[in-house]
Amino acid sequence: MAFLCIDIGGTNTFFGVGDDEFGKFKEFKTAEFLQDIDKAVKLVLEEAGYPELDQIAVAAAGPVDREKGLFYPPNIDREFVQIKEPLEEFAEVEIVNDCAAAVLGEYHYGETAENLLYITVSSGIGSAYVSDGELVEGSNGNFGEVGHMRIGDDLTCGCGGTGHWEAYCSGENIPEMTEELYDLDIDHAKDLFEIDSVKADKALEEFGDRMRIGVANMINMYNPDKIIFGGAVALNHFDAVLESIKDGIDSDIVNEMPEISLCGLGELAVLHGLRVKCNGDA
User: Fold this and answer.
1) Shortest CA distance to 45 belongs to which of 88, 84, 16, 85?
2) For the whole model, what pTM was predicted?
3) C-alpha to C-alpha distance for 70 and 113, rounded to whole angstroms
4) pLDDT (tens digit, 9 = 90+) per residue, 57-86?
5) CA 183 to CA 189: how far, in whole Å?
6) Could you count the other beta carbons within 10 Å of the beta carbon of residue 113?
7) Mean pLDDT computed over 20-35
């Protein structure tokens, strides 16, 4: 059975193509892909040598309306994108939240546990949960928008809300956090973990405090056996993330401290979760 998996991230979109064998095949800028979905898919299939498909699974980094086939991209200047209709000419389409796909990929092919919590810290912050071996999904496929959990009072989130987790710790908002709270001007989130200065130390401590609060809330809500972290910020700076979480978290949680590790499948976790969907394993 030939299938196509599409991971629509906040910045980049990854394609996986396969049947008996599977792997990451191609990458586009998300804005470019959403501008002409049909063209991008045809190019991928032509280069991969797959003239026909049996199944397409799509993961979107943001809210979706599975019934209408709409994706509401958080980092692109468009209210919504119709992603289902242009793909249906190629095969049957299933739409999944990106974190849901990632936790499925890890559960089946990577860092598994029967109660497994996945947290992504990337351009945004989100989560997904496998409870007793079953994926938990909310209404219409939307679940785990924990980046919009209120954990503070002084910063405005990209969504317009106040004090959200994303406003302090997401890759998109870290530069604004450092400038507004500590008068530290950085171009990219990664700079916070590389600069050696008093201001950077204070901003990094702020990041750590907010990460600890957010993760403690998640532990108290879901009581997982294990937490795995994905997303560019966590993947590239896991030691700093882990240190910030563990420093003082015992006083913030009422459940037992779970094992915490880095996403074993890395940036391919979402594609492998979509592979699970295409193979009918979830």
Assistant:
1) 16
2) 0.90
3) 32
4) 999 887 788 888 888 876 666 678 899 999
5) 15
6) 18
7) 84
